Amino acid sequence: MTEPILSLRDIEKRFPGVHALRGVSFDVRPGEVHALLGENGAGKSTLIKIISGVHRPDSGTMTLDGKPVHFSNPNDAQNRGIATIYQELGLYPELIGAENIFMGHAPRRRFGPFSIVDWPEMERRAREILADLNIHDLDVRRKVGTLNVGNRQRVEIAKALSFNARILIMDEPTAALTEADVERLFDIVRLLRERGVGIIYISHRLNEVFELADRVTVLRDGQYVDTMAVKDVAEPELISMMVGRTIDNLFPKMHAEIGEVVLEVRDLKREPHTRGVSFSVRAGEIVGIAGLVGSGRSETAQIVFGTLPAESGEILISGQPVKIRHPAEAVAHGIAYVPEDRGLQGLVRAMTLRENNSMAVLKEVSRSTFIQYGSEKAMALEAIRQLAIRATGPEQIANKLSGGNQQKVVVSKWLASKPKLLIMDEPTRGVDVGAKSEIHRLMSQLAAENGLAVLMISSELPEILGMSDRVLVMREGRIAAEFTRAEATQERIAAAMMSDNGAAPAAAQGAAS
Amino acid sequence: MALQDAPVPVTETRKPLGARVRHLLLSQEGVLFIILVVSVLFLAARTDKFLQASNLLTQGRLMVEVGLVALPMTFIIITGGIDLSVGSILGLTAIMLGVFWNNVGLPLELSVVLALGVATLAGFLNGLFIVRVGVPPLIMTLATLAFYRGLAEGISEGRSVRGYPEWFYRVGQGDFLGLPTQIWFLIIGIIISAVILSRTTFGRTLYAIGNNEVGARFSGLRVDRAKLLIYSFSGLMSGLAGWIFVSRVTTTRSDMGSGLELDVIAAVVLGGTSIFGGTGSITGTVIGMILIQLLKNGLALNGVTADATIIVIGLVLIFSILVNNFIQSRRQVE
Q1: Is A280 on the interface with B (CB under 8 A)?
Q2: Touching check for A375 and chain B: CB below 8 Å?
Q3: What pTM was computed for the model?
């Protein structure tokens, strides 16, 4: 067995009020993908920040090539060959690819008495690095802001390699990628592994861990749980290690009586993303919308919610035609929308849990425009209890909650509006396994017991298959296929999502049968 | 029910008195209040005249115009916006008042009302362009800073209006219940603004917009309507300040209120309202405006020149922001 490049022993880290890491050990060998798993708040971020030089450990040892090291800042770590690719990409959108790759260490040449940037050389070396990764379709002279997410990420990887990285830390690299981009990313990761780079891979998607990783380390509540070879471990075992309990069924779908049509849309159009969409959702029904990123799923939801008003088409709520030009009007019609981008659209993160929880129903906690702080607080306490939100109390700033708990606040905020129709856009993205299961359970329960109509957009096919009574597949701004729960399979949905290469007719048959 | 399997104990602890006092003193308003008290004591020790009732009342009278405009400015800055046109709206109101009365020949009472209407409309137009066209507030109100001033100068043709009837000066020069009349306007304005900001759904909406406008919109809050209202309110209060100004100085000139926007913004920012939006309070703004006014007066009484006074005010502004940043970073750690 090869010696680890980097090894951490008994790392302790405290922040005021939080014991973030308690005696965590971790190592990376050359040529392996080592997955780091844990619920949000388990300490993964703190650990990688220690490895990448952002934080310093309170105690414990870190050795690089068998020698003790201390990183005083991220540059230090980078110069020693440790590169990090964060969730929020750290690129300059207004600069071209090559500049981003060589930011801070651009090749230089003499120009009289000056040393100036050697542009041709920089572009040549940028192309060389990319070619090395089998990337030949990326123009290093284009501004990074004009590249798609997949290409931006490739620029970031190239940037890491320009520092001769021997350890690459990838924090949720697939969170914003399309299926095709995910495949290419995996190819790149495998290529780097063959070349002896040690890769630390953080993801909530267990299937990725099984597909890619050699070893997996699980953290829970800042504590080291175990490190195992991926081939020796099964999914349920990993989940129970992460959450500390067994979750027998990830998607507890309950049987629901399907009632009257709550939402019907006819030929909704808003170019370029929505080109004539018609469907309906009934009380008690969960309708899943699958589709690639850019297929018009979120835009359709936002048309119904009024954030992107329709150019043409009809919306009917309980059979009555309505005009929705603003979210406030949607709320008045009993529509709630748990948006895709939790941090930007879902929450006002700088404000408290109490204030976020009541934001969609301010009228209900106020008497003739005066906010009743007592009832607002009671409402927040009730939400904390009902959804088991892990918070210090109603006055906690929303941003200090973990991703899963933030999402629960968004959900509770919208449940407080007592909607007839709940639209959930990527309801469990970036949410840990425990919270995910609870959100699914809640969704199912609301549909079954309260007769809520649910429209769920998701990029995770298991989620679509597990939760939906009916599945709509969107492609290029239109509904490309529709399946009942019984008809829906991963293969059929995936085929309908992709373009017309013979897959669509099969999907259409599925819809017709 | 599985959701209730893991009940989360939520303990409500009331902080001890000492901690609460400490919290209060370490808030932006608390720090500012301490600075205010120290400044007053220092200035009072240097000259007897400073703390005399007549001097303080005069200072109160002089503070009203900045004070009235600082209230809507607090709202606007909390939403992350700015209104640079307030001084020009003040000037425009003053001119319109004179023109309606002197040139058009309307009754003076009606002229005042119409002039306030023009001021509100001027603010509303700012809001309309910001909301509907998406012009950044800084650019929009910078443009109308020039536009409204130009309008005032064009209409007045450089002439001033004088000779208002005696009763008209009562607002700006008279007393009511022992205080300069216009201070009552300010007191009522402060109370209403403070209640709106801290107690109502509208106030909550303003904070939400300042912290995350997209999130506020996605929560179904009426973001556009709120912005239209605060810019219109800003116009109205600038107009009110214009009326009081004319009444105080007994004349109407088109250059009235030049530079008002900077005094107003200084008072608001000194009061702890973040220029990036999201935080701030009327209490802070009130302390900020009082502090600036008393510093100006106290230093002048001590024989400090006007130029040097501005320097001192600038230094106090920087100092208070440094202290505030220090406290904020300490609190982050806690």
Answers
A1: no
A2: no
A3: 0.77
